[in-house]
Amino acid sequence: MADFRRKRRHLKLPIWTSVVLAGANITLMAVLIVMLARQNAWISLVLGAVALAISLFGISFYAFLTIKEIQLNRRQANFVDSVTHELKTPIAALQLYLDTLLMRDLDPKDRRKFYRTMETELERLNQLINQLLEVGRLDEIGSQTDAEHVELLPLLEASADASCRQHQLEFDEVFQIEGAPVALHTRRMLLEMIFGNLIDNAVKYGGTPPRVRVSAFPRGWDRVVVRVQDNGPGIPESQRRKVFHLFFRGSDELQRTRRGTGLGLYIVKTLVGILKGRVTVYDAPGRTGAVFEVTLPGRVATSRNGRAESPGQKAAVSGHTRV
To answer: Sign of the C-alpha dihedral, residues 90, 93, 97, 99?
Structure first.
């Protein structure tokens, strides 16, 4: 609570400074305008009015930039705190399990359980480090690889499996993946990062227990849509654009109760933009939760025998569901 009040005080200074400057400017200019009007100095009056407008715009713009800078600094501070916690947690867990293995003679069953847990923590640590490295080179990611024919449903299932391993959940208890067998001709790495982040985000910010529905379907002959729907509290309308900003993590309560760095959705937004697509978020219809919808160009429909169909072919696309 003290930290929150301190942040509020940081915002009050530029706001009140701008208000005082604007008030003094308006007062002085109003006196000048009245004096000029009495002297019938109409040219000076017009110039004074223009100067007043420019001055007010400058003060307002200064306040806007200052507040934006303070908010960015706040998000950066939260980011540093989050990353520190995210790095310490798996390292502490690994240290604990290693000490236990060294100090105690465990039976093979418990030893295998420890090894699996340590592997999960290492995967989590590796994912975090990769995510931090990826932010600095988003424009170059995947540029070294050639575009390929990527089946979406297997890729989505693989991302869901990876999320289940990381969070120690059962696939069938969390995920429902459904849709048509569609594919994209693009760089696989970009799709893995986009949907890996969205699916992991849905699990992390979903309900207790989490329930995630992932669907993929064509839209026309040149678009494919993927929706990732969770059963969490949803995202307030006022934050739906901000969630894609760098370091943004929502309310203080969300930052306290959910681990994360505020990088995942920024990476998603940037990579979807590189692929000339669009990502939006809205409330789940008729239920709690949020829906992230990704629309990407360059769809290739696939037939039942796995061969790509040309846009001129009129073929029914079979459904696919894994529940």
So the answer is: positive
CATH number assigned to the domain with residue range 148-322, chosen from the 4 options 2.60.40.3080, 3.40.1440.10, 3.90.228.20, 3.30.565.10: 3.30.565.10
Question: Does the predicted model carry a pTM greater than 0.70?
Answer: no
CA torsion through residues 86, 139, 241, 232, sign: negative
Question: Backbone dihedral region of 276: left (phi > 0), alpha (psi from -120 to 50 degrees) or beta?
Answer: left
- Provide the pLDDT for residue 237: 87
What gap in Å lies between CA 36 and CA 32, rounded to an integer?
6
d(CA 196, CA 186): 16
Intra-chain end-to-end CA distance of the chain, in Å: 43
> Which pLDDT score is estimated for 221?
81
Could you tell me where the DSSP H helices lie in the chain? 2-38, 42-103, 108-135, 152-167, 171-174, 188-204, 252-257, 264-274
* Residue 194 near residue 141 (C-beta atoms within 8 A): no
What whole-number distance in Å separates Cα of residue 242 and Cα of residue 263?
12
| Cα dihedral 149/180/202/289 (nearest 10) | 150
What would the mean pLDDT of 220-224 be, rounded to a whole number?
Answer: 86
Q: Using CA atoms, how far apart are residues 286 and 210, in angstroms rounded to an integer? A: 17
3-state secondary structure of 290: strand
Least confident piece of the model among 21-25, 44-48, 165-169, 307-311: 307-311
